[in-house]
Amino acid sequence: MEKETLAIHSGYIKDAQGTMAVPIYQTTAYQFKDIEHAGNLFSLKELGNIYTRLNNPTTDVFEKRVASLENGAGALATASGMSAITYSIMNVAESGDNIIASSKLYGGSLTLLTHTLKRFGIEARFFDIEHPAHIEKLIDENTKGIFFESLSNPTTTVADIDAISEIANRYNIITIVDNTVASPMLCNPIDFGVDIVVHSASKYITGQGLAIGGAIIERENLVEKIKENPRYPQFNTPDVSYHGLVYVDTGLPLFTLRARLLFLRDMGAALAPFNSWLFIQGLETLPLRMKQHSESALQVAEFLENHPKVKLVNYPKLDSSKYRVLADKYLENGASGLMSFDVGSYEDATKIVNSVEIFTLVANIGDSKSIITHPASTTHQQLSDSEMVEAGVSKGLIRLSIGLENANDLINDLKQALEN
After folding, report:
1. 117: number of CA atoms within 13 Å, CB side?
2. What does DSSP assign to residue 270?
3. Which CATH number goes with the domain that contains 267?
4. DSSP secondary structure string for all residues of 22-81
5. Cα angle vertex 310, ends 307, 316, to 5°?
6. Distance between CA atoms of 265 and 28, rounded to whole angstroms?
7. Which pLDDT score is estimated for 394?
8. How many Cα atoms are found within 13 Å in the side-chain-facing hemisphere of 152?
9. In this structure, which of 161, 298, 317, 368 has its CB flanked by the most CB atoms within 10 Å?
10. Rounded (10°) angle between helices 407-419 and 346-355
11. Residue-number span of the structural domain to which 392 is assigned
12. Residue 299, Cβ density class (10 Å: 0-12 exposed, 13-18 middle, ≥19 buried)
């Protein structure tokens, strides 16, 4: 089936009531048939509902649907995009290990990698996403993952996914890609050799800024890369915290299974059933919304590129963009609604952000309503000056998330703000 159909139907078999809409199973726990049934569930001899921190029927539909849209084998929903990233990294790395990451990332991801995980003994080594060949010189026997964004926030740099995957596969290293900005409608990194995809469902998947959540998706047959791979003993040796379970021997999608049984179980960043239901509603309209976001964003980017007060526009579908070739390869049907532009100074950026009328100053993207943000003051404020430069964030950079309003109205709003 095509994505438009999968977005509406995949993952849900109508219940006994024949409900067209996926029900919200607003419950904490589930009744077991008897002691044997309970024991079988806990030992994984049977699959089923145990406790909503681990699984929930509504969340199960969301997980199956987002996995199908990403062409993945399995998914795990989490309480936020950041918990999805954190669990994915902790699933492969521990104290003494290192993760190789792009220097052009969302500010929260950079802080997680640079500061928070460092306290747990996990080192981050950064590479320039424009030069993936540089990854090789950072790899050693303790490298456990390569992390990057398919379409970076806020610079909209397009990753050469094929090139990065080739290097990772040559060294038997797991790749983790944040595909939030592109969404499953515009890019499927798994199709280009990626192992793990993560999302902040709080962005385009919900589409109206209604709920916080995240997702981890793994590719088919990931076990072939992990089995007997000395980089990942945690998947190949008995897990003493789960009855000696060996993940490579389960026959189940092993990456999301381990993340569920260890990190979701013990750390508890579980997605609420109601939020899962909201994300399911969002997925149903995602194909239409991403098409409109992308079309309007290109119109706005072309306007900004031709305005005399704008020094630089970052949008990969512009003819002038150095990422246009990569965008046409990986983002064939559009480049999403995210863009950024530089007006040269903090003062000019402040004036523009404070003068818009339709755009709203908000620290979010992917909403049906258009959003404006000054990254140096907000999403990337915690970075040092040198880290901001590496992330491509200047004092005069303004980030836009183009919503579903009329593109001409958005252009007129920016025009008056620029010329006010």
Report:
1. 30
2. P
3. 3.40.640.10
4. PP----SB---SSHHHHHHHHTTSS----BTTT--HHHHHHHHHHHHHTT-SEEEEESSH
5. 95
6. 14
7. 83
8. 28
9. 161
10. 130
11. 287-419
12. middle
Which of 244, 274, 304 is where one domain is finished? 274
Here the tokens at position 312 are 């630089």
Burial label for 281, CB within 10 Å (0-12, 13-18, 19+), is: middle
Tokens of 331: 């983002």
Single residue among 206, 240, 274 that ends a domain in this structure: 274
> DSSP characters for 322-355?
TTHHHHHHH-TT---SEEEEE-SSHHHHHHHHHH
Cβ contact 418:350 at 8 Å: no
How many residues does this entry show for the chain? 420
CA distance 94 to 419: 52
Beta-carbon contacts of residue 113 (< 8 Å; ≥ 6 apart): 89, 99, 101, 105, 124, 147
Does a structural domain hold residue 282? no
- At 147, the amino acid letter reads F
Q: What is the pLDDT of residue 15?
A: 79
Q: Which two tokens stand for residue 25?
A: 């199973």
Instruction: Write out the two tokens for 100.
Output: 């190789």
Distance of alpha carbon 314 from alpha carbon 339, whole angstroms: 6
Mean per-residue pLDDT pooled into runs of 10, the chain (420 residues): 93 87 95 93 89 96 98 98 98 98 93 96 97 97 98 95 98 98 98 98 97 98 98 97 93 97 96 98 98 98 97 97 97 97 93 96 96 84 69 86 98 96
Question: Within 10 A of 13 (CB to CB), how many other CB atoms are there?
Answer: 6
Tell me what pLDDT residue 258 has.
98
Q: Tokens 């521990």 sit at which residue?
A: 94
Tokens found for residue 298: 């290109």
Beta partners for 125? 100
CATH number for the domain that contains residue 354: 3.90.1150.10
The tokens describing 170, both together, are: 């040559």
Pairwise CA distance, residues 273 & 176, whole Å: 26
Verify that 321 and 383 share a domain, yes or no.
Answer: yes
Separation in Å, CA 362 to CA 304, 315, 367, 373, 378: 20, 20, 10, 6, 9
Spatial distance between the Cα atoms of 177 and 159, rounded to a whole number of angstroms: 10
Report pLDDT for 377.
81
